[in-house]
Fold this sequence. Notes:
Helix content is 71%, strand content 3%.
Amino acid sequence: MKRLISIELQKIWKNKASSTLTLTYFILLSFIALIASIKFDVGPFKFHLAEMGIFNFPFIWHFNTYVAAWLKFFLAIVIVSMMANEYSYGTLKQNLIDGLSKKEFILSKFLTVVVFAFCSTVFVFIMSLILGLCFSSYNEIGIIFSDLDYLLAFFVKLTGFFSFCLFLGILVKRSAFALGFLLLWSIVEAIIKGFLVFQVFPNSTTGDKIVQFLPLEAMSNLILNPAPRLSVVKNIGSQIGINLTNNYAVSYFSIFIVLAWTYLFVLFSYKLLKSRDL
């Protein structure tokens, strides 16, 4: 297993574009800390994000994983390019000639996906812990380490998303087309959701219950937008008559759905590679 991971990481590191994107991704993750410095005054109105409670424990776990999840597209490019390069440079065929089975090849790619997701999760955990200890109004151990299931959801979300990108990279063989297909699929899901929720089942939650099984929608449902949980947003909502008392806890049913899709993406990748004459 270590050998397979080592082979893939060497390929990524020796590729200038992939290594640059990977470093950029982790640098941008660290920029979340700069949110604390956003501060400006307009007359009597003072806006300071750190004082709004976004870095309070345990809310910080929700906020930082949600923001960090938006940066996953940088590694998505790396994953897709990783597969495209295998076809472009002929390394896939060479690996198979050198004795690597197709099953081991897919396993090496999936393990790389897991490593990326795990490293991202550890990075966000350490960064959030430091920011929380610096800015949080609550520093009790029980509060600090509550709601850590957002980190689990973050890890599962990245693993599922990168597995989807891996499948697209094998399916399409070209990174640009694979990313285009990813964008197209997200649009298709949005159309399906809009049609079911607003046209077919406008007066019930049936549409939402159906679309929660779509891959990207299930990943999106893992970590919901945390902004409505902020007291300032709740106060504004109450003044204009909007109820913002939704459930923002991690849905373990959504985790199960994403894990199921992850398994299917890896299985489809293997079946697709196995059926092709390389």
